[in-house]
Design brief:
By secondary structure, the protein is of the alpha+beta class. Helix content is 44%, strand content 17%. The chain has two domains: 92 residues, no CATH class; 42 residues, no CATH class.
Length: 151
């Protein structure tokens, strides 16, 4: 019975580990980056919009969805512009040396780049002192990325 309990606990932990071992935050079950939201939509619509299955592209180990063909083409031409910074991990967590997945509904475009945050509180903290968080996050990112599995 003890072995069965240990096995169940180990299986329950696997999704949590898998969700934080990717260089780009992806939905564990679907493989979608940003949970299937269109990364270009944050720039063009100023809000998260759900991507459609007919406008998908595989890039960086994740499947990205887009609302339309134009957004898909823009992403293909310049993924570095439209992808969330730090692969979609919360920059305040990255600044502390922790890969905390951002949420597609808690976001900000700053310095012409998309940032996703785990909570509204972390977004507010970032807004209050973006320079500090970005400096620390950029320094920590190199350490964090070495620990993340390349997909």
């Amino acid at each position: 019975m003890l072995f069965g309990s240990w096995l169940f606990a180990a299986i329950a932990i696997v999704p949590l580990v898998a969700a934080t071992t990717e260089r780009i935050v992806t939905d564990y079950h679907t493989g979608f980056a940003i949970s299937g939201f269109d990364p270009v939509g944050y720039f063009t619509q100023a809000k998260p919009i759900m991507g459609q299955p007919e406008y998908e592209v595989f890039y960086g180990g994740a499947t990205w969805r887009f609302a339309n063909a134009g957004n898909r083409a823009a992403f293909i031409a310049h993924p570095e512009v439209y992808m969330p910074v730090f692969g979609g991990y919360d920059p305040t967590g990255v600044a502390r040396g922790i890969a905390v997945p951002g949420h597609p509904d808690v976001w900000l475009i700053a310095r012409e780049r998309l940032y996703l945050f785990h909570t509204q509180q972390s977004r507010d903290a970032f807004v209050a002192d973006a320079d500090k968080y970005l400096a620390n996050a950029q320094w920590q990112w190199f350490e964090i990325i070495n620990d993340l599995v390349d997909k």
